[in-house]
Amino acid sequence: MNPIFKHGPSPQHRLVLVLFCSALLIFFDHKMNSFESARGFLQSMVSPLQYLATAPKQMMNWASENIVTRRQLIADNEQYKVNELIFHEQALQLDIVQRENDRLRELLASPLRTEAKKMVAEILAVDSDPYTHQVVINRGANDGVFEGQAVIDDQGIVGQILHVGTISSRVLLITDVTHAVPVRISRNGVRLIASGVGVIDRLTHNYVPHSTDIRSGDLLVTSGLGSKFPEGYPVATVTSVIQDESRAFSQIQSEPVAKIDRLRYVLLLWPEQANTQQIKKSEAVSVEKVSS
Amino acid sequence: MTFANRLIIILTFLVALMASIMPLPLSVDAFRPDWVLVVLLYWCLALPSRVNVISAWVLGFILDVLLGSTLGVHAGAMAISVFIVAGNFQKIRNFSVWQQAMIVGVLSALYHLIVFWLQRFLTDAVFLPSYLYPVVTTVILWPWAFLLLRKIRRNFRIK
Questions:
Q1: Cα B116 to Cα A242, A278, B20, distances in angstroms
Q2: Interchain pair B76, A23: CB under 8 A
Q3: Does a structural domain hold residue B25?
Q4: A-chain residues within 8 Å CB-CB of B20?
Q5: Domain tally, chain B
Q6: Is residue B110, in this structure, part of any structural domain at all?
Q7: In a domain, B118, yes or no
Q8: Complex ipTM value
Q9: Shortest Cα distance, chain B CAs vs residue A105, angstroms
Q10: Are A145 and A163 in contact, with CB atoms under 8 Å apart?
Q11: With a CB-CB cutoff of 8 Å, which residues 250-279 of chain A face chain B?
């Protein structure tokens, strides 16, 4: 059907209308953050599309996992056995150290660290938008995921949860321009902030005085300040330290430890729930000690 | 326009949306063509009374949600690019496929530049030439997408 007389408003009016809508959306979403709850809802709406879009990749993964030679499987298996032996030995050591640490902490009346709940998630989609660094994972509110939750991989910190849908959620990576992690140097405990610059293999550290003891190759771990990320997980290694006296601060860049450009599985961390009880208990202990 | 026809148009849009979020290796990802823009421009040229600025805005909005960018950025850019075609569809229809491809390339460049300007305005994004790589692949994609979508349109007699 080709109408001779056009129906509805003219293209110009439509354009003005939608551009006005766009301007409103941009203002309210970017400046006021008033779409936080709506975002979760929208995320749930589009998650079937995301699952569908990753189907070919899932199929390729399935094929590459199933079509392997027997020899390859045997080799892998042997490798895993050796790894298991090494890890088991390390776990024994860790167990002893942990118990010793717990005892010492109890002596100092500081809160015990307990095992946090963890969950493995798979990457559903990586954004093709070059301006933001985000990935979508296959866990959502149904699995108890919450906004601001820490996400790590087998090497170190990956990012935090940005929007939660029912069956999928969005992770903001530490390399995004809008993200920053409080870290400390594991060698000497100096505190820094690691901010993303929008490049996948680089973090930057602003406002570091020239006198700070920092060298290239230093490992940066989360400091636990800001209470988003649990303490002690590796974040980045320092790659360059430029101490140019003509500038106010030294320029420091580091490279994320996590393999952010080749993520496949990530780990979600829950904060330690038993912790609060432990604190109360240890506080009670210290109070008793004082009163006695 | 019957319900089935509408459904086929929506299906082509869904496929385009999926193609634009499909995970690709990082090196190929920079060259991902603007699937949604290409499909939108085709339908806008073929049925300007059905697919126009409003549909472009809605699809851009869905793309915003899928890509996690600030809501309204891709929507506005998409609407402006489609508006230009909606105003000149009778001229562009008569061009050869390769001439159309060039026009689509210019529109795609405009789309990416608008997105960049808005991002520059919102966050301090820095311009990299790689932001315009998709223009090349979109120009190459246009003739094939045009032929395929025309076949679909004629086969299902979408008017």
A1: 31, 51, 18
A2: yes
A3: no
A4: 128
A5: 1
A6: yes
A7: yes
A8: 0.84
A9: 43
A10: no
A11: 261
